[in-house]
Amino acid sequence: MLGCGSEPPPPKLADVFAVFPDLPLPPEAKLVSRAGSPDALQLTLFSPAKVDAVTDYYRTRLSKGNWRLVSDLKRPDGSVALYAEQDGPPLWVRIWPTSDSAGTMVELAGAVVEAEKDSVKLAPAGSTTTPKAAK
Fold first, then answer.
1. In a domain? residue 133
2. How far apart are CA 11 and CA 40, in angstroms?
3. Which of 4, 33, 90, 114 is the most exposed place for a label (fewest CB within 10 A)?
4. Rounded to 5 degrees, what angle do the CA atoms 38, 86, 37 make?
5. Domain region containing 33
């Protein structure tokens, strides 16, 4: 039960390094906002670079090294939506120009990826052996 006038604590956000172990930031990025939950995180950034330069940066960066650019879409609102995978958490990127064309907004979204948990291995049907837990 909450005390009179007290508010519940804000929800705990996911650890930035768990969600984004390899976080590509746009040129001269400034954090605008951070939102999320214990399992996911969304960062909104501003870059003074032009939208084409930022889009080219992400297309290049997410197409080499451990990254694989899986999806690259121009949306009806003019923004660009990218989805990339790596040997770790995937990354969703949305890029759009500011309303005054002073720079570019970038939204980065990711989720915590849990390692595969141990599972119980069952014996094949008809077998007389006892199932053993995986180690």
1. no
2. 12
3. 4
4. 10
5. 16-111
